[in-house]
Amino acid sequence: MCRERTPVTTQPDIPANRYGRYCVPAGLEDRPAARAVLAGQAYEPETLRFMRAHAGDGDIIHAGAFFGDFIPALSTALTPGARLWAFEPNPGNFASAQETVRLNDLQNVTLTNAAVSNQPDELLFRTRDKDGKSLGGLSHFVTEPGDGVEAVAAAMLDFVVPLDRKVSILQLDVEGHEKQAMLGAYHLVNRWAPILILEYFNKPQWIARRFPGLGYRHIGKLHGNHVFAARDITL
């Protein structure tokens, strides 16, 4: 179910900002992304500005879509023929992201209900706390089953995104699963050397070892995201 309220929209029952309209999951209104959207603002506006400016003529991979708070801004920045590949493992968040796509009639988005990893399998994902409340964007991977834990599909980006699709940006908000996600995109990264935008993951030596010869360097931070590029760009 979506939270339907905002002071900034031509349809007062649907949250909106400058990029589009959103389905905010009920009960998650206090999460930072939801608060921003409900106030008619964009969440992580500098990250969005940078991604829109550097999408070029390629696709964007966006893993950790939550309710789709990034999706309208990224979709509308793409050139004709380019595509946004979005992934969200939490079933409730995925349903909200689907509705966000529908609300904006976005035709260049492929949204997948899966985590991204280094093998196609299932992963254990905690989606609810001990009281049964949805964790929303705080959902995370775990190693043991239990209350509030669901088995979710895991996908390798190399298997989902065709290798002949030019990828300009790979953005991961995957709750500590960045290494596995990047290993699952090994061929895409080596072919296209996309800009990497990685939440809380600042390991340039690991990236250099796994993707030698591409020349990735850490160029700075946007909000909590570390940005790596294999070409000469600035934030």
From TrEMBL:
It comes from Thalassococcus profundi. This is FkbM family methyltransferase. InterPro entries: FkbM_mtfrase, SAM-dependent_MTase, SAM-dependent_MTases_sf. Gene3D superfamilies: Vaccinia Virus protein VP39 (3.40.50.150). Residues 63-200 form the Methyltransferase FkbM domain. Coiled coil: none annotated. GO terms for biological process: methylation. It comes from the Bacteria. The keyword Transferase applies. Keywords: Methyltransferase, Transferase. GO terms for molecular function: methyltransferase activity. The keyword Transmembrane does not apply. It holds the Pfam family Methyltransf_21.
